[in-house]
Design goal:
homodimer, alpha+beta, 16 strands, about 20% strand, Diphosphomevalonate decarboxylase (chains A, B), cholesterol biosynthesis (chains A, B), diphosphomevalonate decarboxylase activity (chains A, B)
């Protein structure tokens, strides 16, 4: 950590954090709303910062009149309960530490902070922007106020999935059992180096803002879905164990099948809420069919999909299959331009498509159905 | 009944039957495939024959070489197991009755039958064509061979939902408990005269054939969905009781809410199958939003939707609300032509739309999203 801030100088802290994408979801219901305690454990993969990154700068000064926050250049309401939870919790930890260490000359806790956060990807389009954002915010504030310890507990209170974004690689959010949430935290299952062949393609269907924010959706869900509790209690625990084992064995077929089943079941519980929530649109459904037909053609689970609270598909596959699968997407969702900018991020080699494969998939092409693809991979969290 | 056929003359029987639409579904899983025993009880409403009708003609003659069947003018395979089940079961009942009554001179059982069935609505577009078709087939064969008794037991073995189509009004299919299925039969809950204000609008989204036939979908579902059994065992029985009570009280708000929740949960279990099944498309989702926003505007459940194995919406409402709701659909799904043929079936009076209501619904209109509307109501089955 750095030293506590003393005196009147303005202190700046600048941090990066990567987005993390769920492969096993707890979205869809919470057992405690304010503390953000989930109804089941969950798992995610942290992605490379080059492609999906939040950069957060925090500053404090005795001259600041009040706490303020800017997201992507636009000032937002600092009084949002979740931002307040993070600020309050970090200040409480800082106060506790200082009283433990008797740093009585420190005055920075009285200082107000200015927070500035920028994403290099669309906010609230189902691309895990709040996970990366809150993880980065909490980490930056912890550096500013000189706080150590289990920061995933703090990040969780900003946005549940943010707790997983504090770590790189494959990360589990253990739901915990305690009422106060002190055991509801993130833990790395395997580091990013564990499965270097694993690749991630984000198929961006639409950058429009979602009709229903995922939070309001979740709250409705936990109250009205009759299937959600059954999923949390009876389906997820067993599948979660299978998933961790599949990752540890680097068994792509098992990993892929569980990922698809979890995504579908999550969206099933969204549809079972009242009124129902739809995150998948026609293009999402078409991507799902395409993946199943692709795998069917090879009699092998080579590619898997998962969808968060939006229509964009997150595709996992092994690096050998990336060039061909990109060509499949390009063929069935012909891009607007000549395709030069269709794939962003990690470079993808050329590949040709066999007529057999095209025929086996046999879907009607949808021009411009996919805006672009972000090609990325598993990485560290970006935090030191 | 008519007399058994004797000698060489050709005997013709001509029957009508109405389609019936589920308001509580058992689709999505069967406890016995061949006997078609469902995993939960279900409920449907039988509609007026003028709008959705099957006409079946059966003939038998000593000169016919083999059993044959034509659907909408095209010969189909008579050896389909479900058609065979119905033929076998009717002949078995006829044989039993004749041996009971010692009609030893009767020879018509050896005669082959020709079956000709015509729908006045698109086949396999999720418009309950198989329900009406098998109900009509079984009734026609029963007349031909002089069979009485619980024909819903026979119709069930053709197409599960056909057993409910044997009766008019509000019909329950009791799942039963016996292994041999003898107690899995249809029963009228209330006759068509019970709730004369109830009206039905079928919003035909697409007359294209479905990607996945509902039967193959169901078989996958019962094997792979982890939510389906929970729904059948823990959710449906309670809701079914509430639904019957709502119908008996003519409580539209309760009826409407249960109908929407059951439809959504059914489609949730389809999405939870592996690979997932999608019957709802973008237009279906838009109709769902439209209904919720319409009800929200009036702070009252005035309109309800339900979807079978296809994208077409079946709307229930009370007759007072029909003209305005039709205008709402016309406004948000502007038809191709001047709209003269947009509404088929029962005539609908004029209505105007307030700007308030348009603003409250606030969806982007989708030209030609709905091909046409069938305006109909609850009726008898059409069978004598």
């Amino acid at each position: 950590g750095i030293s506590p801030v003393v005196g009147s100088k303005k202190t700046l802290i600048n941090c990066l954090n990567a987005a993390s994408f769920s492969i096993f979801r707890s979205l869809g219901g919470k057992r405690h709303e304010e503390l953000i305690l989930p109804i089941n454990s969950s798992l995610s993969v942290t992605l490379h910062q080059d492609q999906l990154k939040t950069t957060t700068t925090v500053a404090c000064s005795r001259h600041f009149q009040e706490d303020r926050i800017w997201l992507n250049g636009k000032e937002e309401d600092i009084n949002q309960p979740r931002i307040q939870s993070c600020l309050r919790e970090i200040r409480r930890l800082a106060r506790k530490r200082r009283s433990d260490e008797d740093l009585s000359n420190d005055i920075s806790l009285a200082h107000r902070v200015h927070i500035c956060s920028v994403n290099n990807f669309p906010t609230a389009a189902g691309l895990a922007s709040s996970a990366a954002g809150y993880a980065c915010l909490v980490y930056s504030l912890s550096r500013l106020f000189g706080v150590d310890g289990e920061l995933s507990l703090v990040a969780r209170q900003g946005s549940g999935s943010a707790c997983r974004s504090m770590y790189g690689g494959f990360v589990q959010w253990k739901m915990g059992e305690r009422q106060d949430g002190k055991d509801s935290l993130a833990e790395q299952v395997e580091p990013e180096s564990h499965w270097p062949e694993l690749r991630v393609l984000v198929l961006v269907v639409s950058a429009e803002r979602k009709l229903v924010g995922s939070t309001s959706g979740m709250q409705t869900s936990v109250k009205t879905s009759k299937l959600l509790k059954h999923r949390a209690d009876c389906v997820v625990p067993g599948r979660m164990e299978e998933m961790i084992s599949a990752i540890q064995r680097r068994d792509f077929a098992a990993f892929g099948e569980l990922t698809m089943k979890d995504s579908n079941q999550f969206h099933a519980t969204c549809l079972d809420t009242y009124p129902p929530i739809f995150y998948l649109n026609d293009i999402s459904q078409k991507v799902i069919s395409l993946v199943h037909r692709y795998n069917q053609h090879y009699q092998d689970t080579r590619v898997t999909y998962t969808f968060d609270a939006g229509p964009n598909a997150v595709i996992y596959t092994l690096e050998d299959h990336v060039p061909e699968f990109i060509q499949v997407v390009r063929y069935f969702f012909p891009p607007e331009t000549n395709g030069g900018e269709f794939v962003k991020g990690l470079p993808v080699g050329p590949a040709s498509l066999s007529e057999d494969l095209k025929t086996a998939i046999g879907l009607e092409p949808v021009p411009k159905g996919i805006s672009y693809i972000i090609s990325t991979k598993v990485c560290d969290s970006g935090l030191p």
